[in-house]
Amino acid sequence: MPTRHLFTSESVTEGHPDKVADRISDEILDAYLDKAPNSRVAIETLVTTDRVVIAGEVRGPEIDIIAAARRAIRDIGYASAGFHWDTAAVEVHVHAQSAEIAQGVDTHADGEEGAGDQGLMFGFATRETPELMPAAIHYAHRILQLFADRRKAGDTDLGPDGKSQVTLEYLDGKPVRAHTVVVSHQHVKSLSNAALREVAAKFSREALPEGWFGPETRLLVNPTGSFVHGGPAADTGLTGRKIIVDTYGGSAPHGGGAFSGKDPTKVDRSAAYAARYLAKNVVAAGLADRTLIQLAYAIGVAEPLSVYVDTQGTGKAPDDRIAAALQRLVSLTPRSIRERHQLSAPIYARTSAYGHFGRAPEASGAFSWEKTDLADKLRASV
């Protein structure tokens, strides 16, 4: 008998209050790295009605933090009463990085750098999509990206805030159709729910594989009836409050650390990118259909404390052999990760919405952790 189950993931737009906070934090990080690639940055942002509060610790050049925040808000598209890029009050409470952190992170005598914090990070890959991402989160992102493209192309009926949720039906462990799609999207008062529903249906068909969105798919659009009042004017946003949206939509564990606002010495971010790179290359090499990788670090220590590989019963070779091959081929010290993936470049603002994984690598270094350039060497090594 075939087995069936449902699995759900959600995404949020760049105009969701939490994502506005993430974007501001990453915009500030990029401003520091653009001036000094070795800057040390840990920025947190709070947004609410007509107000932005920025706090954190840095070691780097002087930059215009307020200008960076306003630039981020303007690019997202907030220019209305309640939250406007040019008129919202911006408070800055940023201080120097702790010397005790610096002494553990800065370059050691052997040329290595210590991890910027302790913690555990996960990477995951699966054959469910061509991008080797879990299907539900990947298509939830894609639906909202289509809305954003339409809004930024000049559709003034759509606001910046929104959410999507995709429930997929799995048959014998493989996704086969969309069971339910939920879209809650900010809009002008004059736009009817029926008109918005037409747009949501169109984008759901475009985003999902052919045949997955059919007459039997349940589509819920603005289930409360309307969504006119949105963004930070309606709800408070904080950096790092959408970590499952940022990663795998609940299909894999998350170590707990957020990404946005952190420079690449913070392994919460850089090692999570490295773990995704390793997991994706294991699957791309044909060594497994699904792979979960965990890395663990201690503050001030360069080498990871552990490297764990779990191919979840799909491996074509023993997990410990794959783990050993990965460690032979790739150095996982913070410095090596940073250099391999060009993480000292100002590439982070574009990662702050629609997921840090499953995106196309860019020449600038953004999403370089999505490359599968290790697959051939890994296959030969295993």
Compute the number of strand runs: 13
Mean pLDDT across all residues, rounded? 95
Strand content: 15-25%
Question: So how many helices?
Answer: 10
Structural class: alpha+beta
Low-pLDDT stretches: none
Radius of gyration: 21 Å
**What overall form do the CA principal axes indicate?**
flat
Please bin the fraction of helical residues. Answer: 25-40%
Strand order of the largest sheet: 1-8-9-10
How far apart the termini lie comes to 35 Å
The succession of helices and strands, N to C, reads EHEEHEEEHEHEEHEEHHEEHHH
- Major sheet characteristics: 4 strands, mixed
Care to give the gist of this entry?
The protein is built from ten helices and 13 strands. With 382 residues, it is of the alpha+beta class.
Structural features, described:
This protein is α+β, with helices and mostly antiparallel strands and 382 residues long. It contains 10 helices and 13 strands. The chain has helices spanning 17-35, 65-76, 99-105, 135-152, 193-207, 243-246, 267-284, 319-329, 334-340, 375-381; strands at 4-12, 40-48, 51-59, 79-80, 83-84, 89-96, 119-126, 158-171, 174-187, 218-221, 237-238, 290-297, 306-310. The strands form 4 sheets. Strands 1-8-9-10 form a 4-stranded mixed β-sheet, with helices on one face. Helix 1 crosses helix 2 and helix 4 (135-152) packs across helix 5 (193-207). The chain is flat, with a radius of gyration of 21 Å. The protein starts with a strand and ends with a helix. The model has no long low-confidence stretch (mean pLDDT 95).
